[in-house]
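Budget justification, computational time. The allocation requested in the original proposal was used primarily to generate structure tokens for proteins on the priority list. As evidence of use, we reproduce two of the resulting records. The first is shown immediately below.
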Amino acid sequence: MNFKTQYILDNTPFLKKYLRYHSNYYKSIIRNPNLVNEIIDLMKKEYHLTLPDKLDKIRRNISMMNEFMDVLK
């Protein structure tokens, strides 16, 4: 594993957590450090950290606040 890959793993807590549950990816990263970006994409999909997921979360929060404001009226 090269230093860049190790740096990415050490500074991305969600990726560390993901790799603890999916330990078979460690072997893949060690064999081919270029797979880190693909594994990060998989992690983002599983933990709902993609842009559409974030936008949906914001939309739901705004909707909740609107409903809350309607109740207070």
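The second record produced under the same allocation is shown here.
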Amino acid sequence: MPKPKRKSWNYEDIQEYRKWFEGQTRNTQNRNARKLKQFCDWIGKTPEQILKEYENAQDKKSWQRERKKEIEAFYNHLKEKGYKINYCRTQPLGILKFHTRHTETIKEGTKCFDAPQLPDNEYIFTQETLRKAFYYSDLENQTLLSLAVALGYSSADFLELECEKLRLLVKEAKDKGLDFIQFIGKSRAKTSIQPRSHLTPEAIHCLNDYLPTLEKKFNGLPKYLWCNDKGTGHITNEGLNKKLKRILKKANIETYGKQVKFHEIRKFMYSLLQAKNRDIAKVITAKKVSASDLTYIPNLDAECLRIFRESYKEFALNGDVTGKAKKEQTEQIKKLENALNHVEKENASFKTRIDVMQKQFGAQSEKLDRLAEVEGITSPHRHLEELFDLALEIALDKKDPKRKLERRRKREEKKRAACPGAAARSPDRPACSRPPTSTRSAPPWRSRAARCRRPTRSRPSGRRRARPTRRRSRVGAAPPAR
């Protein structure tokens, strides 16, 4: 079964409601049209009928009270259906905006709403997780993370960043040798505040490498930095969140089932900046700020740059930083230097050993060449291992007592196999080298000689019989007469 396509903001159901919010941005117009449609479906009236009731109403105050009760009932209806408090608070805003533009402003229309709740299932970014994600990302994702941290924009404003403006800013920063360069974006439709942020050194570096890649891919710079595959428009908010999830997954960062949203990077930046100056933090991130408060800041741009520079060490993704991270980096560098010195000392000792071995081996090279010649081995320098094994085998075969004993026992086994009478001998006792005596009877003539042999006389003790001496015959002399 094919997966159903995701509904876009431009589906036909809200087309007739978009006209009530003309003049707003496309996303805001679609969002308010969807909220107005949901309210009209619940109440069972169309926007035209609501306007007609307002025109026919004699008492405008009583009509306003009735509309306020309807909005309160709609808010309670959403709570009963199980929606979260923050969602129930934002849905009636489209109806209030409709009345403000076409009828009357509903006074205290949100008074009945519950207090906003902090989200409990959203992943919170820290400097460590952002640095890890930045380190394991490719060029495109590094550009995304560095710009998201530097600008602190909402997802809607971040997706509408244009390539040409960024290219000119990067060129200016490179020509002037600037580490930070101010980026003044478009005024937010929600707050009517024009953000005054700055590009960080890593953002400038990533954009300088990424923009030529993007230009080569589409045969020219597209309009939007985060464009779709065709280059005709930018990706959606959902696509931006999915891209951020893939970045964390590639860096092996565990989210424990929490929702990963681009808006959390904006919260991360604002929390760091507001610790220095709350009003300047609102200006940089384009949040709603009182104009009377800004009048007491004589040089707004210089103050924004000062606060941004002072806070940079707390959100820098790479480069020279100070504080705890700098101390840890110094300790790691020192450990690496010590390890490198130890390796260099070991290499020096190994080199000395190798030199000694080369001298000793030079004296034995002639013998190895001769051994290779005897064995028929060509190119001895390519068969050194084989020659050493052969030389060791020859030496062990000649001098090793174990091998000698083993060869001796093999010889004894062969002899015992050839001589059955020697089977009872110990294997360690040497066998007789004479052939075994024959079991046949002696010949007759040998028996007669044995019988005719005189018995030997016993000699008396203490007396030694003199042996008769014989004269040696001279050469050529006649034998003696008998």
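A brief technical remark on that second record: Residues 1-10 have pLDDT under 50 and may be disordered.
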